[in-house]
Amino acid sequence: MTLKNSALASIFFISGSYAQNPPTQTGFPVDIPNSNFVRAGSTTVIDITGDDQLEILVGDSQGKVYAYRSNGTELWRYNTGSAAIESKIAVADINSDGNKEIIISSGSTFTPSNIGKLTVLNNTGGLICTHTPPVFGATTGIYASPTIGNLDNDPELEIVFGDWGAKISALNHDCSILWQSQSPPAVTGNQLPNDYDEGNVPYTVYVNDTIWSSASIADMNNDGQMDVIIGIDTHIDDNNLTIDGGRIAVINGNNGTVQFSVDTDEVIWSSPAIADLDNDGSLDIIVGTGYCWQSAPCAPPPNGVHPVINKLYAWDNTGQNLPGWPITLENGYAIYANSPAIADIDGDGFLEVVINAFKENTSPFEGKVFAFEHTGALKWGTIPQVLATLNPTSYVHYAANSASPIIADVNGDDELDIIVPSNWELIAYDKNGNQFTRVGETQQAQELLFSGAYPATATPTIADIDSDGDYEIIMASGNAAFAPVPATIYVWDLVTSSSSPVPWGSFRNGANNTGSFIENLIFQSGFE
Predict the structure, then answer these.
(1) Burial profile 415-425: b = 16 or more Cβ within 10 angstroms, e = fewer
(2) Taking the chain, what is the end-to-end CA distance rounded to the nearest angstrom?
(3) How many whole angstroms separate alpha carbon 18 and alpha carbon 495?
């Protein structure tokens, strides 16, 4: 399949200078010296040194990784190569040595000639190991964020990711292979065995196309074995195992065999969220379809474009649709790489699903943020209102198609809010979909303003980085006042108590990137 453009549609409008509420954290924003701006690389916030102070980690668009202290000073940096990092770094003690390791994936259509890979560092920024995926088409690399979990029940943790080489890999802590998916003949040059069955060992899941979706890890069937849940691009080939569209696969984490899978008529670039959406005691899978088979520049021959209905899915732990799902998105709206966030935003005892989408045939893409009830009913849909210039009558309605929402109380009213990037700002909505970040030239007393100096196209993070008893919100992008544009870390100091639960506080909801809803979670050390 033709590789899709990452489509981080940067919006270069005039950024004004405003007195901001909330204030920026002391030491921030910080322009990282000799760096390049951040595209879709979301921040990871966790204590990597063991001093009970949180650090901020992020990768830039030239393949460099930065670790910053909570006071805005640099701890270390590492150059993974020249392929851009558009993923969120994972952090965990994967080798059981008592120290955390840093796991980075790199690869981008903005740097198509540069080879992306997986890199594992120790907590001082020293190299432990790397893994380079196979070439498939014109680009090689890993757009997806790596996911960490214990797949084989030994003391060490494993790393899971899909790549553009038509491969899902589960690696041990030293980058050796636990298992990998079955590649197609187009990659291996060999036909599949006559008795190939992806549901039984010694065979593994079949993948014949690129993967953009980040994996989730959860025990879907309560058998004590962790499973890998991931979205896959698919197309028809001579093996007749896949369709022109996409696929969600639930894979035995220990051996790579398929537990079940569901075909969709469109690719899945979105990363699945895992939660008990219907309160039946079993986990469900929530994910959106992407934007390829309905788009001529993306849909590959021989069949090319086919009719697609843009949907948001929720399946139970056997692959059956939950009642009221899937949801057909409002006419003209589609999901790109945006991923759902999950929380009980209204306190009714049931979880809601929040996701941002874009409107087709708009340039730049207009956006809309949706909240759905556990039943699939629309709770609300709100179009971002963001000043395009200093003229208060000129607005943009952008919702970054590379970023996803987070859910937390950001104004201290003990109610959950939804935060999503839009243009140069972070936009915040209350539980009813009312925007309470600035909507006019003059910021009102009750309005918040999270405004940077470059387009915000990565998911923010919430954490108490300075251990002062209240949360901060952290975002990485750039600073257009300089050329070349450096990577810039923005931190705003909130009034919300750090004892308040944060049900979905970052992309993939924690430093392990498992994409799971965790009830009553307090985000102080990366969801350990």
Answers:
(1) ebbbbbbbbbb
(2) 38
(3) 19
**pLDDT value for 401:** 80
Contact (Cβ atoms closer than 8 angstroms) between residue 29 and residue 479: yes
Q: What gap in Å lies between CA 352 and CA 373, rounded to an integer? A: 5
Q: Within 10 A of 410 (CB to CB), how many other CB atoms are there?
A: 29
Q: Is the bond preceding 501 in cis, omega lying within 30 degrees of 0?
A: no
Helix (H) and strand (E) counts in the chain: 1, 35
Cis peptide before 112 (omega within 30 of 0): no
Contact 134, 187 (CB under 8 A): yes
Tokens (6 digits) for 511: 């430093």
Whole-angstrom distance, CA of residue 71 vs CA of residue 482: 23
Side chain identity at 381, as an amino acid letter?
G
Query: So what's the pLDDT on residue 112?
Result: 84
Give the H/E segment covering residue 481. none
pLDDT, averaged per 10 consecutive residues of the chain (528 residues), comes to 45 44 96 96 97 97 97 98 96 98 95 92 98 82 97 96 96 98 88 94 96 97 96 92 96 98 97 97 97 91 91 98 97 93 97 95 85 98 83 72 94 97 94 93 83 93 96 96 95 96 96 87 45
Residue with tokens 């802590």: 173
Neighbours of 78 (CB within 10 A): 18
268 C-beta neighbours (distance < 10 Å), count: 29
pLDDT at 393: 63
